[in-house]
C-alpha cells in the first residue's frame, strides 16, 4: 500500500530558497565582484584612468559636434526644399489665378474643367514624374460648387491641418510638415499652401512634396558623422593609451626598481634611453640610488665597526676588570682596618665596580642583539615562581626605599613556553624601574593568562611619564629625570634589553603613563613558542587611571610598545577588554 508524503510545513517552505532568489543572488554577486575588480583596476592603473577620461571627454565633445553638424545638415536640406516648393507655389498660384480670372461665379460650368486642367498642368510641370509631388486645389468657401482636385489623384484632406487651412483663408502663404499615407507607404510631406484670388472670392492651391529623399540624405549624413566620430574617439583612445604607456612605463620601471631597492637589492638601476625628460628622470633616479647605496654601505660599515668595537671593548675589559675586582674585593674585605675616609673609598669602589660589571654584561648582550646572534632557549616554564624570585631579589631595595610590592597572581601554575632567564631579566628590569620611581607608594605586579598568551603588568604610582616621554622610555641610556638620584645604580640599558627580549619571544612590551598617575608596563608573551599574538589577557591602562578630557579619544594617556616587526607602537591606550587597539607606526 502506497502512502502520500505529508505536505511541507509553512516554516519549511519559507526556509526553502526559491530558484529566482538563488539566480538573483548569483547575478548580484557576479556584478558586485565585477564592480570590485573594475574599481580596483581604476585605482591601481594610471593608464586606465587616463584612457577612460580621454574616451569620455572625447565622446562628449565629438558627440556634441556630431549633433550640431547633423542638425545643420538637416536644416539646410529642409530649407532648400522649402525654398524650391515656395517658388513653385508662388508661380503656380499666379498661373491658377490667370486661369480662373475669367469666371465671375463659382457655379459656372467651365470653372471645374479649368481647375482640373490647371491642376494637371501644374503637376505635369514637375520634371520628375515619379517624384511623388501632389498638387491640389480646394475651395473651402464653396464646397458645394467647386470640388477638390489633385494630381495625381489622392485623398489629401488628412495632410492639410485646420491650422494650415485657417492661415491660407487669411490670405497667407503657409507651410507645415505632416506625415501621412498617400501611396502604399507612410511618408513625411512638406505641405505648402497659397491663396488663389478670383473674381468671386478665393480658392486654395496646395503642394505636397515628399521629404523621403531629404530624410535619406540626412540619415546618411548622420551615419557618416557618427561613424567618423566613433572612429575619431577610438583613435583618440588609442593615442592616449600610446602616449600614456610611453609615460607610465618608465614610472612603473622606477616603481619596481624602488621596490627592489627597498628590499635590499642596492645594485638595481634604471635603463637610460635618449635625452628627454624621462631619460633625465631615470638618470636622476640612478644617481639617487647610487648615493643611497653608498650612504647605506657606509652606515652599515660604521654600524658593524661600532658593534665590533663595543663587543671587543667589552670582552677586552673583562681581564683587567677581573684583576681590579680581585684587588677591590681584598681592599673591601679589610676596610675595617682602614681609617674612615679610606674605608668609605673602598665601599664606593666596590659599588662602582658592581655597576661597571653590570654595564659590561649589558653591553655584551646589546652587541649580541645588534649582531643578530641572540638565541632563545624556550622551555615550558611556570611564571609564578619566576615572579616570586624577582620580588625576593628586589625585596631589600624595596624595603630600603619604602616601596611595598603587592602581588596579584593566580592560584594555579601559569605555564608558557619561554626562556626563563630572559623573562626573569625583563621582570627584574621592570620591577626595579617601578621601585626606583615608586615614590614610596605600592607597586602592583599582576599575572594573567588566556588560551593564547600570558601577560604580566607592573604598576607604580610615582610621578608617571610626561607628554613625549612615552616615545623615549625604551631608548638606550635614557632617563626620565637625569638629576634624580639612582637607588639601583642601573646602566640605562635595562628597558632596551627588555624590549629586545620581548621581541625575541615574539611578544610585546608596552608602556602607559600619565603625569601624577604613575606608569604601567605590560609584558605579553605567546603561551606557545612561535604563535602570533593578537590580544593580551591584561589591560594596558590600569583600571584606577583617571583619563582626562573624557578618555583617550580626547587626548588621554598614550600607550607605547613594540608593534609589528618590532616597530614602536604609539597611540591611545585601550580601555576595553585588553585587546591591542593602539595605533602602530
UniProtKB/TrEMBL annotation:
**What are the alphabetically sorted keywords of the record?**
ATP-binding, Cell membrane, Kinase, Membrane, Nucleotide-binding, Phosphoprotein, Transferase, Transmembrane, Transmembrane helix, Two-component regulatory system
Q: Which InterPro entries match?
A: HAMP_dom (IPR003660), HATPase_C_sf (IPR036890), HATPase_dom (IPR003594), His_kinase_dom (IPR005467), HisK_dim/P_dom (IPR003661), HisK_dim/P_sf (IPR036097), MtrAB_MtrB (IPR047669), Sig_transdc_His_kin-like_C (IPR004358)
Q: Highest taxon of the source? A: Bacteria
Q: How does it sit in the membrane?
A: Multi-pass membrane protein
Keyword flag Nucleotide-binding? yes
Q: Where in the cell is it found?
A: Cell membrane
- The transmembrane segments are 50-70, 223-243
The residues covered by the Histidine kinase domain are: 312-529
SMART domains in the cross-refs: HAMP, HATPase_c, HisKA
Name the Gene3D superfamilies for this protein.
1.10.287.130, 6.10.340.10, Histidine kinase-like ATPase, C-terminal domain
Q: Which GO terms describe its cellular component?
A: plasma membrane
Domain named HAMP is located at 245-297
According to its UniProt record, what is one Pfam family this protein matches?
HisKA
Q: Which reaction does it catalyse?
A: ATP + protein L-histidine = ADP + protein N-phospho-L-histidine
EC number(s) per UniProt?
A: 2.7.13.3
| Recorded GO MF terms | ATP binding; phosphorelay sensor kinase activity
What name does the UniProt record give this protein? Sensor histidine kinase MtrB
Q: Which organism is it from?
A: Micromonospora arida
